[in-house]
Amino acid sequence: MGAKGHELLSEKHKNTHRKHNQDPAEWRPDVVHQCLLHLLDSPLSRSGQLQIFLRTKKGVCIAVDPRLRVPRSMRIFEKMMVSCLYRMKVRSTSGYLSLMKVVKNPITDHIPANVRLIRVEKDGELVDPFLLPKTLGRSNHEEAVKQVGTSTSSSGAFGALHTKKAEETFRPFAFVIGGMSKGDVDADWCPKHQVQSIRLGDRSMSAAAVCSAIVHGFEETWLAEDNKLANQS
User: Fold this and answer.
1) What does the pLDDT look like over 58-68, one tens digit per residue?
2) pLDDT tens digits, residue range 123-139?
3) Domain(s) of CATH 3.40.1280.10: residues in the chain
4) What InterPro entries does the database record attribute to this sequence (predicted)?
C-alpha cells in the first residue's frame, strides 16, 4: 500500500481492470521499473550524461534525478511511485534533494528548444545502436571542430567565428521510448509521422532491452577513454 492507502495499478489488479473495462497489459509499472534500472545503473548516467523524464498514461510528467537509486524490489518501487504521484515529489533521506518530482506539462518546456526527438518503435528505420553516436551529439561536434581546426587559423576573429559555427553543429537529442508491453507512444508533442522513427532490430525488443542497447552504444563512444583507463588499471 502507498500513501494514504493508494496503490499503483498493475496486472495483478484484475478485478479493477475488469470493472473499468481496461486492458491489464496497458498497466505495467514493472516495465518502467526495468527501464529505470537499466538507465540509472548505466555508466552513462553515472557520468552525468543522461537526463530522464517519465510520462504517465494520464499525461503526468515526472523528472528523474540521475542520483536516484532505483529500488530493486518491485513492491518498494511501487510505493515510491505512489508517493511521487501523491506528494508530487520523492526526497532523498537528507531531505534536501528531490530525486523525483512532478513537473508541469508540456515536457518540451523542460528540454532544449531545438532538441531532436527520436521515437523508438517497431516500424521505424532500422539502425545500429553502436553507430548512433556517429550521427548524433558529441561525435558530430568533435568531428566538426577537428575539421574547422585544420582549415582555419586558431587565432583572430576568423578562427573564433568558425569555432563558434562548429559548436553550433551540436544539437541536443532525446529518445522517446514506450515503457509498456504493447502499443505505440501517444504524445502530441512528438507526433508519429513528424519526427524521426527508428528501431534497433528486426525482432521485437522489450523497452528495457531498448534502453540498455542505446546507452551501451553511446558508452562505447562517449566513455571510450574511461574504458581504456579501466582496462589498463
Assistant:
1) 889 999 999 99
2) 899 999 999 988 886 54
3) 3-134+172-232
4) Alpha/beta_knot_MTases, Rbsml_bgen_MeTrfase_EMG1/NEP1, tRNA_m1G_MTases_N
pLDDT at 213: 96
Parts of the chain with a pLDDT under 70: 1-20, 22-26, 137-169, 181-183, 226-233
For the domain spanning 3-134+172-232, the CATH number is 3.40.1280.10
The Cα–Cα gap between 172 and 112 comes to: 7
Return the pLDDT at 4: 47
Residue 2 Cα to chain centre, angstroms: 26
SS (H, E, C) the chain: CCHHHCCCCCCCCHHHHHHCCCCHHHCCHHHHHHHHHHHHCCHHHHCCCCCEEEECCCCCEEEECCCCCCCCCHHHHHHHHHHHHHHCEEECCCCCCEEEEEECCCHHHHCCCCCEEEEEEEEEEECCCCCHHHHCCHHHHHHHHHHHHHHCCCCHHHHHHHHHHHHCCCCCEEEEECCCCCCCCCCCCCCCCCCEEEECCCCCCCHHHHHHHHHHHHHHHHCHHHHHHHHHC
